[in-house]
Design goal:
The protein is globular and about 75 Å long. It has no helices and 42 strands. By secondary structure, it is an all-beta fold. Helix content is 0%, strand content 43%.
Length: 452
């Protein structure tokens, strides 16, 4: 006999009018649907595994009014594999000044389309292994007690944090994001103090590990508590594995006269490609021992970037921007592609980033409807020799591109309109020479590509 998961209905007119009334009833795998509306002073623990807790018809607003479960949070989640969607958490405070919207004590949490504001912490996650925390399309604002020890969100030493398409702003004295996760994947999000915010760092990754910071908007306002925007490994490098910070295609804007865009200790690898660092301050506090930088713009006034509307934090660029087409492919970090595939859309959304023959610096690509570059009649292979990933800029007029082995046997083929860039994954092929055959309307050419 198979058990059937239950969907619990919570809201006005239902049998259960508050989420806390079903916390002791739900079983593993159940769903709790909470009607949109305000649930004042209602706090709860969630102990079952594989729960889906979601607002229906809009935000279910968990308005704490200063209450907290077990002096910890509005929701204390000790079950594993919980998903939370369309919930608003606000106003949590506790005697030890670290009350949270969510206190995560179980393994594996997914948060989507939520809003955390005016708590002492937005999310406070305990150390749990193995555990992955995924946060997407969510806003964090005005969290923090004001002592610098509480933050918009504070992730302790879990295995992996995946943080995408989010908006974190106006943390009160604390950080917009503080994460001790062993691996941090932070992409296509906006972190900003704006004109009146008093947050500390925009990103603080104090224990090192592997960090992928790709395609983000990172802005420090004039009232920021700290002079550096991104801190990495500044407490102690205790996370397991290599300490590597990959910063690819971010737009960093410092509205203070001084500061540091990246602050790291010496014993790390920093790979920084295609970043805009606009405004006051220096690229680094001091260069670490392992550095690989290319295609970055720094030590340049904000106005010189010709952003769409810097005063309103719109950092799109146009054809006249010095960030246009100065970037370089960053390759791979192991099996992880160092490529900005998406762009942040305000608030908490995204769009696919335009991919074409040349890359721009920053979080936004300038991509007109039709692009014809200098040398558009020539094929370019970047890089060559290549690793597991190669970019091929196709001449205008290309109709088909074929990848052949050294004996001329067809491996892959693409039909194209020409004048574009193809991203080719070579990870399935052995080291050695490969051939690219380009077929146009009236010509065929063959080019050698070497896989290292």
């Amino acid at each position: 006999m198979c058990a059937t998961a239950t969907i619990w209905q919570v809201g006005p007119g239902q049998t259960y009018t508050m989420p806390s009334q079903v916390t002791g009833l739900v079983n593993d795998g159940d769903t709790v649907d909470i009607e949109a509306g305000t649930y004042p002073s209602d706090v709860a623990p969630w102990t079952a595994d594989n729960l889906l807790l979601r607002g229906v018809g809009g935000f279910a607003r968990m308005e704490s009014n200063g209450f907290a479960w077990a002096d910890k949070a509005i929701w204390v989640i000790s079950g594993n594999n919980t998903t939370v969607e369309w919930i608003e958490f606000s106003e949590c405070s506790v005697p030890d000044q670290n009350g949270a919207g969510i206190r995560q004590e179980g393994a594996n949490l997914t948060v989507r389309n939520c809003w955390f504001h005016h708590n002492e912490n937005g999310i406070l996650a305990n150390e749990v292994h193995p555990s992955t925390i995924r946060i997407e399309h969510t806003e964090f604002g005005y969290n923090g007690y004001g002592d610098g020890q509480s933050h918009n969100l504070y992730i302790n030493n879990v295995d992996t944090l995946i943080y995408r398409y989010n908006y974190s702003h106006h943390a009160h004295v604390g950080h917009e994001l503080k994460s001790r996760a062993w691996v941090n994947i932070i992409e296509y999000s906006r972190f900003s103090n704006e004109a009146d915010g008093d947050a500390s760092r925009e990103l603080d990754l104090p224990n090192g590990g592997r960090a992928f910071v790709i395609g983000n908007i990172i802005q420090q306002g004039p009232l920021g508590q700290n002079s550096n925007l991104v801190g990495y490994g500044l407490e102690v490098l205790t996370n397991p594995g290599a300490h590597q910070l990959y910063a690819i295609n971010n737009t960093l804007v410092n509205e203070k006269n001084t500061g540091t865009f990246f602050h790291t200790p010496s014993g790390v690898l920093l790979k920084a490609y295609n970043n805009i660092m606009a405004g006051g301050g220096t690229f680094m506090n001091a260069w670490p021992l392992g550095v690989d930088t290319l295609g970055n713009l720094y030590n340049i006034p904000i106005a010189s970037l010709l952003f769409a509307d810097a005063a309103l934090y719109d950092y799109h660029i146009d054809a006249a921007s010095p960030a246009r087409y100065i970037g370089y492919p960053a390759g791979m970090a192991g099996t992880y592609p160092l490529v900005a595939w998406d762009e942040y859309v305000h608030p908490v959304s995204s769009v696919v980033r335009c991919q074409h023959a040349t890359l721009c610096a920053g979080a936004y690509e300038f991509c007109p409807t039709s692009v014809v570059e200098q040398g558009a009649d020539e094929l370019r292979i970047r890089p060559n020799p290549a690793g597991d990933l190669v970019f091929v800029d196709l001449p205008v007029g290309t109709q088909q591109l074929e990848l052949l082995d050294a004996c001329g046997r067809l491996l892959r083929a693409w039909s194209t309109n020409g004048g574009a860039t193809l991203r080719i994954d070579l990870s399935d092929f052995s080291h050695g020479p490969l051939l690219l055959r380009v077929q146009g309307e009236r010509s065929v050419s063959v080019h050698t590509l070497v896989k290292e």
